[in-house]
Amino acid sequence: MIIVLRPEATKKDIGHIIEKVKKLGLKVMVSQGVERTIIGIIGEEDIVRVQPLEAYPGVEKVMSILKPYKLAAREFKGRASVIDADGIKIGGKKIVVMAGPCSVEDQDGLMSIGKAVKKSGALVLRGGAFKPRSSPYAFQGLGEEGLKYLMEVKKKTGLKIVTEVMDTREVELVERYADILQVGARNMQNFNLLKEVGLCKKPVLLKRGISATVKEFLMSAEYILSNGNFNCILCERGIRTFEDATRFTLDLNAVPLIKKLSHLPVIVDPSHGTGKWDLVSAMSRAAIAAGADGLIVEVHCSPEDAFSDGAQSLLPKKFDVMMKELGPVAKAVGREL
Fold this sequence. Notes:
The protein is built from eleven helices and 14 strands. It is an alpha/beta fold. α3 packs parallel to α4, α3 packs parallel to α11 and α10 runs parallel beside α11.
């Protein structure tokens, strides 16, 4: 249930409503927009329905949200959320491109990639310091050493950092280095991890699970929001279907659908979504045309030598060409790169 307040509602009015709702044993979330303040009520709605909420000072209307994801729902916040990642706005008019290697391998290589993607127009450097791998014998990442390499590139280039956190015990460590904490597809329903990043101050990039429905995806986002962190960015990265010509099936239907159902920004990962470098540019253009707020793309100076995911990584020169191609598409749909 949400309570929409009048534009002239005072802090005293808001405080009064919050106090009353909390006394009923319910959880309260406040979303303050430019014109309106909305109070979300989480808990058993039957307790609230018997309360004369419309009679409270400052209340304009009371609405019931029927969807199981209350805070992530479009009804909770009418206008689209814009997430601030250390000065980079995700969800606004500008398309935000995140780029870099799948894994952080060494400092010199990461610096070369960082400088290249920055020159081409990327605003955020991606790179995994902790890597979830299907095989226990595959490269698992450099850990904190990799985080330090990412920080060095940030200092030299000004790029922001997005990197994956895999374990509740690593959240505090990763938060010290990253501007955006990524929860990967394999951890989309790791509810303890979702709760932990929900307590963070930093934005969270939540990737859709390999076999997750849109509803399940939004319910996972709800875990993050319900713990107080509204800085959640959703990422469509391909789902598992019967098709085996590509690594996954990039579900671009999900982009406009989620933006209809939720106020949260949506970005697309065409690298994991296809698994083939030569499909990445086409799917990036399609993602922007579908309404994506950004892209996360894998780039490597020597894909054949990459520790992971070389087959889907673009060379820097290919990434540069792609970025030039994206501009007209963004302009055509009223966005900018």
